[in-house]
UniProtKB/TrEMBL annotation:
This is EAL domain-containing protein. Residues 24-273 form the EAL domain.
Length: 273
């Protein structure tokens, strides 16, 4: 009897797995067609100076509107694009994001946004085939964009690999003149030693630390420590997920110069930015 039941569970589990695998395949098939069918776009979120709230830059965030599925959140489709290789394929999603960012920077030239810096998110996978620096160089030239206006966000996990090829590409990107930012800082396992070894310009303090500021002594102490470290290493700081005036005031008092979050604006389409 127990055996029978066990078998039944097993079958149920397998059916469930198959359904999930099928769902994944369907989502991936739709995602493959998303870019050629014009279902992808970038939203832009403001980054502001905490002292006077002046606009310093923006982060570009990928959006997918599927006619069948509606808006699919990045946390759902980016991992799929990474696992499937769609993110780093030639002309794939990663290249598309970079090209759009360069086009936007080109459009901003000569206007009120000419001095802004635009940040694009990169997946670790985009460092796998080794052609990232060449792609970025080509796109900057094609669009006639000042490299200093472009910032590339990478995560700590990328730097943990101690991979020489990755390291070389980071330096090659730096040589182009683009800025490098470490996204979601504090959630990974990066060390002080690593921060000295990689050519990053900006630390983005993860939202999870900002959330508890002013309420949780530990969060305060951690942000204080990150600010101190950034100053020692001469890195710029951007706090993520700033939602309240209290958080902004706290960050400013601690010496963090830039904030990004709903308090300063949600991610919006280019025409609304
Ligand atoms: P991220 O790079 O850390 O982006 C910040 C996320 O926080 C965004 O979520 C943004 O909408 C959200 N956010 C901004 N301000 C606030 C706030 O005040 N409160 C709260 N609760 N959330 C806030 P989003 O757009 O859903 O993107 C999620 C993640 O997907 C991004 O995290 C990034 O890791 C990834 N992603 C987005 N676009 C791209 C892309 O073009 N390429 C790659 N590789 N990854 C991307
Ligand atoms: Mg980011
Ligand atoms: Mg982030
Ligand atoms: Mg984040």
């Amino acid at each position: 009897r127990a055996k029978e039941q066990g078998g039944g569970h097993h079958q149920f589990y397998r059916a469930d797995m198959n359904e999930r695998a099928l769902e994944r395949v369907q989502l991936l098939n739709r995602l493959r067609r998303a870019q050629p069918q014009g279902e992808l776009s970038l939203h832009y979120q403001a980054q502001r100076r905490l002292t006077d709230r002046s606009l310093l830059g923006a982060e570009a965030l990928l959006r997918w509107h599927s006619p069948q599925l509606g808006n699919v959140p990045p946390d759902r489709f980016i991992p799929l694009a990474e696992e499937s290789g769609l993110i780093d394929a030639e002309g794939g999603l990663g290249d598309w994001v970079l090209a759009r960012c360069c086009a936007t920077l080109a459009a901003w030239q000569g206007g009120p946004h000419a001095q802004l810096r635009l940040a694009a998110n990169l997946s670790a996978r985009q460092f796998r085939n080794g052609r990232l620096p060449a792609t970025v160089a080509r796109l900057l030239t094609e669009h006639g964009v000042n490299p200093q206006r472009l910032e590339l966000e990478v995560t700590e996990s990328l730097l943990l690999d101690h991979d020489q090829a990755t390291q070389q590409q980071l330096f090659a990107l730096k040589d182009l003149g683009v800025a490098l930012a470490l996204d979601d800082f504090g959630t990974g396992y990066s060390s002080l030693a690593m921060l000295r070894r990689v050519p990053v310009d900006v630390l983005k303090i993860d939202r999870s630390f900002v959330k508890d500021l002013g309420q949780d002594g530990e969060a305060d102490a951690l942000v204080r420590a990150i600010v101190g470290m950034a100053k020692a290493l001469k890195l710029q700081l951007v706090a993520e997920g700033v939602e309240t005036e209290a958080q902004a005031a706290f960050l400013n008092a601690l010496g963090c110069e830039t904030g990004q979050g709903w308090l300063f604006g949600r991610p919006v389409p280019l025409e609304d930015f």
